[in-house]
Specification:
Two copies of one chain form a homodimer. Chain A is built from 18 helices and eleven strands. By secondary structure, the first copy, chain A, is an alpha+beta fold. Among the domains of chain A are: 8-154, Butyryl-Coa Dehydrogenase, subunit A, domain 1; 162-283, Beta Barrel (Butyryl-CoA Dehydrogenase, subunit A, domain 2), CATH 2.40.110; 445-590. In chain A, strands 3, 4, 5, 6, 7, 10 and 11 form a seven-stranded mixed beta sheet that branches. In chain A, strands 1-2 form a two-stranded antiparallel ribbon. Chains A, B: Keywords: FAD, Flavoprotein, Oxidoreductase.
Chain lengths: 598, 598
């Protein structure tokens, strides 16, 4: 059976030593009182919740899955899931970073996201129930009417009710412009909503009394395509004026999907059979309103893979130290044993270090993004808010796609460390691979993320936001350019930064003549950008480690950090050499293939 | 539900137009009568068997899995599996390439392997039952006593009985030197065998009356380690002198593993409780005897992934043409539809072409290996036999590791083409990913294959065998060096060939000083070697296609082949740039990481 230890030390390193978040929060009135000890104490408790309450339910949840009663349309979640959720609610966890106006604790996003990393390590399927609720909370918080907010936000904040996002239909996922669900206005100001939704995560369950579905649908007079989509609240039970539950609404679970992974989460087919809904935001502006939660959800998906990468690494490391098999190529290491532990083998170490480097790089990047969101929401300086918003928009597709692709590489590598035992369910490793696999697909496939990055976020403003990130790189190069000890970490980043600038101009020019050039380069481009960003954060982490060591700090944590940084730059970062080459190979070899793909 | 069409045209292209196998067979007395029409007719029938009999059982087999009756120790296979096996036996398929002396049809290995590619596309879990039998057949054919051969080979050839390989024990897989199963000599010349084996594929089932286990065990006076292992036949039912079944032997299934994939195959824990066995080959030479079947099995595992790559490609291609979603970046393509089929998107094409290029490259390489085995077994010239043996030994780890890693990349890419639907079981795509995953692990993990390639097959004889493959490359370069149309296919291969030579010398030198350098480079090295070999075969396939086109052949197959070749060299082959760099980054960044991996 797998084990999990919350990576508190590394989280503290990123938060307090690299990003120095407490200093940042001093500038934000909302968070001015948040200090290092409070953050650490909360995450320590959060880690206990994840490792002691939801982690032990992970394998059982996968085995048992969710069951639908076809007559009542009610879903039974795996054993223990409901009780864990009630503990979660009792602990006040849903409210962590919610608005105090609606009962929230008003803590920074960084804290909540760090907590979510641990929840995802422990049990991604379970974590999706509160995770989706958080998305619904954010969309309503941004776009709900005062009455809607008053009715729903306190319940979502306390965790008394949960939420969903109902976007996908059988014939449309990426292309929401094609959606068919209808919303007919009623005399009382509500809407009668009819249609079929699929792939609705946490769409039905037995945790709580009510589920708040946020549903995209089309008004009768709506323009065609994505400009004719509106957002509605459709609760499972209608809510009376006094906030008590009324009649059962015409929204129910018609079926559950049988999936590769995340079995513990109910992926529901949701039938809307003249359900009563209320409009959120303006008519036909539903996609924009939904984007609020989609962006948060995309970073959330990256955190899911970060969590799985971390837990897979921990277990593979323990196995590699324990399992004895063959002798080291460079001579016997464990003389008292019939064979050496497999960690003596270079390639086993490579698999382990790949997961470790991706976990720690991903943690730094995603915490930085969360800090940017905190700045965007609460920094007093409008310019800082705006710049943070732009930068997080640039980094969001990278967090989503790069961290989930890395999670795929890392969980598979960690499974491979186990040899044949990795393929066996009881060890838990293959579940991490299966659960991670959806992260590369949902909330916009990783191809869609790459087009969002290159087409919209980079070329869409002629590289202006990318240049802002470039400035951060340039600043680091300036700070450390003469530090010989930093050269091995700074030089590759500086070099790639220059390459990226040329490369971006080149693709922009080619894409102007033929947009398929952008589509052909986008996936490779995102991975190069991912390494540029990871390289930057690895260099910053190395910088802190070197300073501590120079100051006489003998905590082995810092030497370990340097070892992992060296591994990253030597063995993972050079992937960019191929990616630049294949991106430059252009679109013709892809598009002139009608006979090959006949 | 997925579909499958046997790729007969491409098989014929490789067999008859690239490798010209019928000409080769004219030189071999055993196969002198084998002509093109016979081969094609057999494979057409074989394709029907795969697509019509075993393919329809694939998803059901995955859902149902195998069940063990704990009291009788009997295993029930999924619905239809047993009946399909009986049709397989009635069709004479088990005997295809077996020795006529024992009832076989004596056809070339190429034919049998091409048939197996299709069986694996159709249903890998089912195919492992006859596949393991074939391995047992080969080990007994090479090392059995005349009496053992007379007793067992006709039954394995007809398929009346099946076989297994019992190697792994709970504490040892790769490191068989540690195995503990005991074999005590009895007065009647038999052995009493006691121990526990795990991960025994096709280890127990309801297909046939008897199962012939080939078991590795240790004699009482055996030397320690791998030099003290002997091979035994341990039948499920003892066999009487007249060939009829006798008493139930003390070998039974103690449990079935719950696995990520290949659910339809019974992965058995086999308990040997004083079972009666007979020695195969010489005492303490069991590993050598087993290697006969392990080499064949390694190529067989590569064929499993080849089969999955092909079937995943076919289904992703069909989906990409059918599924409409978004518009082409370069303008509307399907004006009559609300969106364009997703095949218009460059990255969707890239995912499809990746699978196609890996399937067709893998088919050429593995058929060439099978031809080498035919030469090794039946060529009248001893020198040809020896050279073929050496070359197939070099290529075996490449077929095993490169094709299975490519299968991982390809099945995941094809699943990704389906978006959210790829994660849903009913589409069948995620099963291809799960089934393929074991291929990277069993029969020696891909790390073990890479050490076999670099340490033993390449450096072990100072690159002598590699140079033989280099000569094949050089010959092609000489033939086509002045052909401008071939330059795009020949130049990258020639360049990489030169690089490989330097690179090999370099690693050999470093490895001489520090063997961990070999371990650190091996996995990257194998992938570079894989691309060198694939590049060579893609160039040869392009050569044939260009000649046909020049001769006025208007079959679009040849243009399609060139399109895929161009894609391969532009988008997949350049991976070698990174691999050479990371391999050269050496072992220090892996080995000096005790603190990072504390």
């Amino acid at each position: 059976m797998p084990t999990y230890t919350p990576p508190l030390r590394d989280m503290q390193f990123v938060m307090h030593e690299v990003l120095k978040i407490a200093d940042e929060y001093k500038a934000m009135p909302r968070h001015a009182d948040v200090d290092v000890d409070t953050i650490n104490a909360i995450l320590e408790e959060g880690g206990k919740f994840a490792s002691e309450v939801t982690f032990p339910l992970n394998i059982g949840g996968d085995e048992e899955g969710c069951r639908l009663n076809q007559e009542t349309h009610e879903v039974t979640t795996p054993k223990g899931f409901k009780e864990a959720y009630h503990k979660y609610v009792e602990g006040g966890w849903p409210a962590l970073s919610c608005d105090p106006e609606y009962g929230g604790q008003g803590l920074p996003i960084v804290v909540n996201q760090a907590f979510y990393e641990m929840l995802n390590s422990a049990n991604q399927a379970w974590t999706m129930y509160p995770g989706l609720t958080h998305g619904a909370y954010e969309a309503l918080h941004a776009h709900g009417t005062p009455e809607q907010k008053k009715t729903y936000l306190p319940k979502l904040t306390s965790g008394e009710w949960t939420g969903t996002m109902c976007l996908t239909e059988p014939h449309c996922g990426t292309d929401l412009g094609m959606l068919r669900t209808k919303a007919e206005p009623q005399a009382d100001g509500t809407y009668k909503i009819t249609g079929n939704k699929i792939f609705i995560s946490a769409g039905e369950h037995d945790f709580v009394a009510n589920i708040v579905h946020l549903v995209l649908a089309r008004l009768p007079d709506a323009p065609q395509g994505s400009k004719g989509i509106s957002l509605f609240i459709v609760p499972k039970f209608n809510v009376n004026k006094d906030g008590s539950l009324g009649s059962r609404n015409g929204v129910y679970c018609g079926g559950l999907e049988h999936k590769m992974g995340i079995h513990g989460n109910a992926t529901a087919q949701i039938v809307l059979d003249g359900a009563v809904g209320t409009l959120v935001g303006e008519p036909n502006k539903g996609l924009q309103a939904m984007f609020v939660m989609m962006n948060a959800a995309r970073i959330g998906v990256g955190m899911q893979s970060l969590g799985l990468t971390e837990v897979a690494f921990q277990n593979a490391l323990a196995y590699a130290k324990d399992r004895i098999q063959m002798r080291s190529l460079s001579g016997v290491k464990a003389k008292d044993k019939p064979a050496d532990p497999i960690i003596v083998h270079p390639d086993v170490r490579k698999m382990l270090l790949t997961a470790k480097a991706y976990a720690e790089g991903g943690r730094a990047l995603s915490m930085f993004c969360s800090l940017l969101i905190d700045r965007e929401l609460h920094h007093p300086d409008e310019k800082v808010r705006k710049e943070s918003e732009e930068l997080v928009a640039l980094l969001t597709p990278i967090v989503k796609a790069f961290l989930t692709d890395n999670g795929h590489i890392a969980t598979n590598a960690c499974m491979q460390v186990f040899g044949g035992h990795g393929f066996i369910k009881e060890w838990g490793m293959e579940q991490f691979v299966r659960d991670n696999r959806i992260n590369m697909i949902y909330e916009g496939t990783n191809t869609v993320q790459s087009l969002d990055l290159l087409g919209r976020k980079v070329l869409g403003n002629n590289g202006a936001t990318l240049k802002k990130f470039g400035k951060m790189v340039a600043q680091l190069v300036e700070e450390e350019g003469v530090n010989e000890k930093m050269a091995e970490f700074i030089n590759p980043v500086a070099y790639l930064g220059e390459q990226m600038t040329k490369f971006t101009t080149e693709i922009g020019f080619k894409g102007f003549q033929n947009p398929d050039e952008v589509g052909a380069a986008a996936v490779d481009y995102l991975r190069v950008a991912g390494h540029l960003v990871f390289g930057y954060f690895w260099a910053r982490m190395a910088q802190v480690a070197l300073r501590e060591i120079a100051a006489g700090n003998t905590d082995p944590f810092y030497q370990a950090k340097l070892q992992t940084a060296r591994f990253y730059f030597a063995k993972l970062f050079p992937e960019t050499a191929t990616l630049m080459r294949t991106a430059r190979a252009g679109s013709k070899v892809l598009m002139d293939t009608d006979l090959a793909l006949a």
